[in-house]
Amino acid sequence: MNLPLLKYAPSSQNTRVAGYEVGGDEQPKIYDAENLYSSSDMDNLIEAAYRQIFFHAFKSDRETVLESQLRNRQITVRDFIRGLLLSETFKNSFYEKNSNYRFVEHCVQKVLGRDVYSEKEKIAWSIVVATKGLRGFIDQLLDSDEYLENFGYDIVPYQRRRYLPSREQGEMPFNIKSPRYDAYYRGILGFPQIIWQNQVRRFIPQEKQAKAGDPSLYLNMARSINAQASPTPRVSALNISLDKVPYRK
In terms of C-beta density within 10 A (0-12 exposed, 13-18 middle, 19 or more buried), how is residue 107 classed? Predict the structure, then answer.
């Protein structure tokens, strides 16, 4: 028996505030499949989708079948996003390396373009993950009214209202704010670690390295000799023979 989504009260955030904004470099660029006029525009849209879901996609992470279907208009952008969320790369990188609460936070940021409202929302969506599985959770997230109202079927999700005219500094991007692995798995996988070397290594360019016959090459050899100066003998006045002292006759 599937449990219904628990009710949670949305908090007041920038994404829920309607306002008039003037487009500029600080505003996110919206990639809409309905406004594509060339193949390069479709390439930019696909790259934006990869950045939104994976942050960066290597050649082995790309879903070539989904890309071909999207280019031929066989699927919508929403279906393409669904395929990326259900891919093995996303499962290995986010689903298997995080708890359900952390995974829900990642998906809400990437799919709905906002932060989670509260811990109640994390608990509500984590119950969906536990009862319906990964596919059921992704389907319910993409079929939600919030997603359809903001992105519909042809717009790539983006971080909504990151900048506000009344604020000097905007919100931090999700890919920097929320790392891929939490602290538990970072400790298991062993990265990132700060390693301090006791010996400071310095790089010397080849043109500045000592050549044969340079006196600096013999510095270590001279230090290894450990030569010690002979002590100065101490002579007592009682041991001096006055007969051997020269004098005038």
Answer: buried
